[in-house]
Design goal:
This protein has 907 residues and is α/β, with parallel strands linked by helices. It folds into 6 domains: 1-123 and 209-252, Dna Ligase, domain 1 (2-Layer Sandwich), CATH 3.30.1490.20; 133-208, Acyl-CoA Binding Protein (Up-down Bundle), CATH 1.20.80.30; 262-351, ATP-grasp fold, B domain (D-amino Acid Aminotransferase, Chain A, domain 1, 2-Layer Sandwich); 388-527, Glucose Oxidase, domain 1; 547-637 and 694-905, Phosphoenolpyruvate-binding domains (TIM Barrel); 645-689. The chain contains 38 helices and 33 strands. The chain starts with 5 loop residues before the first strand and ends with a helix. The relative contact order is 0.06. The structure holds adenosine-5'-diphosphate and magnesium ion (2 copies). Residues 738, 777, 798, 800-801 line the site of one magnesium ion (MG). Substrate binds at residues 576, 632, 777, 798-801.
Length: 907
Amino acid sequence: MSEKWVYLFNELDQAEKHVGGDWEAVRGLLGGKGTNLAEMARIGVPVPPGFTVTTEACNAYLASGGSFPEGMWEQEKEALTAIQAETGKTFGNRENPLLVSCRSGAKFSMPGMMDTVLNIGLNDETVKGMIELTGDERFVYDAYRRLVQMFGNVVMGVPDEAFEEILTEVRKKQGVRTDTELTADAWKSVTEKFKEIFKRRTKLDFPDDPYVQLKLATEAVFKSWNGKRAVDYRNAAGISHDLGTAVSIVTMVFGNMGEDSATGVAMTRNGSTGENQIEGDYLTNAQGEDVVAGIRLTKDLTQMKTELPKAYAEFEQIARRLEKHYHEMQDVEFTIEKGKLWMLQTRDGKRTAQAAVRIAADMVEEGLITREEAVLRVTPEQVDFFLHPQFDPEAAKMARTGGNMLAEGLNVSPGAAVGMVVFEADLAEEWAKEGKQVIMVRPETKPDDVHGMLAARGILTSRGGRTSHAALVARQFGKPAVVGVSSLEIDMGRRQMAVKDKIIKEGDWISIDGTVGEVYAGKLATMIPDIKDPWLRKLLSWADEFRTLGVWTNADYPHDARRALEYGAEGIGLCRTEHMFFQSDRLPHVQKMIMADLPIERSEALKALLPFQREDFAGLFQVMNGLTVIIRLIDPPLHEFLPSQVDLLRDLADLKIRLQHAGKLKKIDELLGKVRNKERILKRVESLHEANPMLGLRGVRLGILIPELTIMQVRAIFEAACMVSKEGVDVRPEIMIPLTTHVNELKKQREVLEAEAMIVMEERGVEINYKFGTMIELPRAALTTDQIAEYASFISFGTNDLTQTTFGISRDDAEAGFLIEYMENGILPDNPFDTIDRDGVGELMKIAVEKGRAVRPGLECGICGEHGGDPQSIALCHELGLNYVSCSPFRVPIARLAAAHAALRKK
Ligand code: ADP
Ligand code: MG
Ligand code: MG
């Protein structure tokens, strides 16, 4: 006996057995569409009888270079016989003809990539039978011409325009605007004309043998798997090419058999808001594709309640049934034939981030899924969307129904962007400088385009996938982007792009949604979604129950800290003290401190800075009442606080020219003074100059060389702590030394720090509980954390510097340079500055945690680099057993969810 290639909808059990009961494998075998049709049939949802030819058959067909595997066609015919028995209709029989559709369906949905042929089984004979049976000649010829058209287009490759031209002509001749107004005779003549076109274009007669029709249609679906469109789509979407497509043959049901017939599409919940309310569109007296094609104005599904109440009631029940079965919101296609409802497709519904969150939360309350499932179902990216501008769902819906949605592509970088189309980087930059909003559109991008991409609000490309240059750059700079929009034809010569029949010229407005990968014509209204969304709050509170990793924040100012608290932060993992130094009222004192020649000058400058710092810390402590605040002592090289050498040289040249032209003595004196001052600064800048400041005099090295700096900062911290503690605030400062490489650095700093802390606490008569610790951001520190832990009661990974020093690359240079190429070529899977390099940097972290805790079991370990907000890195931190991740306030909600995912997935 040959292999089984064909499964009737009611043979799902056998398919399961064939693949060993694995549900994913069933979908792989029968495709998403085929599996769901069979599943619906199994749970008693009305599905027209049918069967599915497997992806294995497709793969065998393609591998053999185009012949059906042994036994397949026979099995397909047998399955048809079974359907005949079930329906009482006969394929190709004039009396009561069976008509079927031939539908493609791969494991993963590939929207619009492969095709469907409806009404297979019609020919000049069966048409007559159908007319006798239905008494509706108009309907029958409409169905017949559709077959010729779809068969011609999908199976034989006749361009659809050839058929559409005729339709337009006939409509004009008859003086009507829509197809519904066309008479039976008109459809009859259209059918004839279609057949003529078919013959002219293919040099063949339209096949009147239904079995030939079915055979060729099956083959066409198989072949469409390797069609250019489908291959491009899979390349872009990262879907494997060896999956193959299944073919489902489904008994035709007709929504165009009068006013008690209808066809429609629906979502079991609102896909924009997530509200638990069926949402959809339908048309009475119409066939399936009419709803999607937008040739007729569709009606809102709520209208069906009154128009076809019985069918609607049943539909509502089925929708609930399907949700109960799939535990997911469903996107369905249905047809009502003379009052009888048939389901033609179901799949998980697409939804916005807000809807995803609300649906997950609601389904828990409805008892459909557990809290764990709900938390796992929402992605960190979806939470992220609550923090970015998005298109107003109403505006997007209107654009869609108004035919302004141009195309769909890959959603590679989230957010909504509105701007004028620009096809070239230089122009994008120029227009942006003029204050225009632009969207950079290219077939694909190259390193030369980066300046234009930076100037643009968003990026759109017709080629490329998730790891294309455009996608990587867009994500890196947080620009919304849609790539791989294959239906977009960009004509660089004419400076325009075409999508189907729409032409968009350079300078025209478009809107792109990088969150879902949609492209619209015109300007869509945007809005910032509400982080206080009640469903999001609920979901994140569940996430908090599951996660074991703390989520802290990086905050330098009280307002950042307040925001972070609102987002759910549980501490400050990094307060960068130098940010405070850059403020205009403080910078002069900092510069004075750096320029000081005498210790007395230096200590005066530092004294002037002290009150500022104290105030800053007091503010943070107040906001963070009862929570840890980790304060890092000054980190950057001092030259960063001085003007650049280039600026100074230019200023000096200017001054000298003015000096030459100065007439009055007073002016000359003034200018001379300025020149001397600048020269002094220049000298200091030159003396501070380092070939590689990243590896130079910075971090703890500054504190060692200028202990007064450490003393001032420590004093500010403790004075502030004592002050607010007296106000009744629960202060928990932790002082962190940056860039430690040797334990002796820590020993020295600790002595200075403890002494000063003691003095302040005695002065103020207050006891403050504090911790002393260090960043681990150099490989040597990571490898010697056992020694370090003798002196540090906490460590915090600075994974930015740790990545730079582990890889031996400087971030700024690498990201602007070779890193993109490294990722494009697959040398690096991710940007190591976005996602922690597990094998290298991650290994160092692991060693540090293990060695550190071996010496000091309770060693508090955290991370304060930007990686602390990256879901993949958070998973690694969870595995390493860190106590917390600390990230920017805006990443806190995402980190809460990602930490819960890490905990739940590990279980
Ligand atoms: P797609 O994947 O592009 O949606 P489908 O295979 O779902 O393609 O079919 C296209 C259209 O034809 C849909 O509207 C579908 O509901 C309709 N259709 C498919 N098979 C049948 C059938 N047997 N009877 C009636 N309508 C059908
Ligand atoms: Mg469909
Ligand atoms: Mg650092």
